[in-house]
Amino acid sequence: MSEEKKLSRETFINGAATVLGSVVILGKAGKAFAQSSKKAGKYVLSKGYAAKNKSGKLSKWSFERRELGDDDVLIDIKFSGICHSDIHQMRGHWGPQQYPQVPGHEIAGVVISVGKNVTKFKTGDHAGVGCMVDSCGTCESCKAGEEQHCDNNATLFTYGYPDKTSPSGITQGGYSSNIVVKEHFVIRIPKSMRLQDAAPLLCAGITTYSPLVKSNLKKGDKVGIAGIGGLGHIAIKLAVAKGVEVYAFTTTKSKVEDILSFGAKEAIYVDSLEKLKAYNKTLDYMISTIPYNYNLGAYASLVKPYGSFTQVGVPVGGELTLNNFAFIFNRVNYNGSLIGGIPQTQEIVDFCAKNKIYPQIELITANEINQAWEKVVNKEARYRFVIDTSTI
Ligand SMILES: [Zn+2]
Ligand SMILES: [Zn+2]
């Protein structure tokens, strides 16, 4: 560890540094730190929970974020949701990672400073950050509000992606005290909505909202949702709010009552694939959030011929076994979907605020994160863990 880094860490341990306004106010140790490196003095100090290797076990880590640029917003993070993707990525399930890495892409907090070109936000506003923090901004996909599909491959995801502006060399996510993000990638959160309720909308919410909206559902259509965890439970609430009949499929019996309370017409406990047969060709559309390999054909066959089935859960290595016998007979269109663009992310936050749609969350402290991850893996989350980041 370099002297500078050691010092900056001590600064935090001593509680001597506070980020206030656009200036990083440093205590005794911080002054020495600022003098030791001109550049480092302008960095925003942050503390978080990071994975240090692919065991994925998280522990405290102090680090620096880039200095606030003219187009940037500095957010004091209040809450950060736990997404299954955090676990997959930190454990190397989707490819090798650089460590230390701070996960978290369901970020909600308060704006504490803005760059001089920023027009959408001011100090004190409530703001959120989801799965991405930058893109080229000029290609057709970016211009169409689909920044997650930047044609120039410049989509910068919120953690673990190479980022020249980041002192650690990669983007660092929301299990932390603050974040510096380009204005375009910051979402307004209406003050009528609690920040802890807004956080899960920024990944779990938008990931299911986007394909639901694109599928052009009509009131009264029958929609299937498979996998009722963080994503699935919000999908039920969103679909019900859009006026469709929801059929929710779960492999966890104890979730049945909750599912009905979320407004689903039916909750189907799938203890054997035989249970699915009664629903063959009955649904207009279906989404699966299941993040592990499973019998996809058996579920897709519940959709009416020429209807669509969207997979949003991403298993280890992204791989799903798809037996084509199911698809040549069921004539269902299979597709995948990746989060949603910035305009649509703003849309879902506004939609949920207006319709009072809130995820079912369980607030935890930072020292409970590792335990919460095990619960997510063991399907014991009810339904989204949200970290109170003041405890980091
Ligand atoms: Zn996520
Ligand atoms: Zn682009």
From TrEMBL:
One Pfam family hit: ADH_zinc_N
Domain Enoyl reductase (ER): 56-392
InterPro entries: ADH-like_C, ADH-like_N, ADH_Zn_CS, CAD-like, ER, GroES-like_sf, NAD(P)-bd_dom_sf, TAT_signal
One Gene Ontology MF term: zinc ion binding
Cofactor: Zn(2+)
Keywords: Metal-binding, Oxidoreductase, Zinc
PANTHER family: ALDEHYDE REDUCTASE
Family: Belongs to the zinc-containing alcohol dehydrogenase family.
Protein name (record): NAD(P)-dependent alcohol dehydrogenase
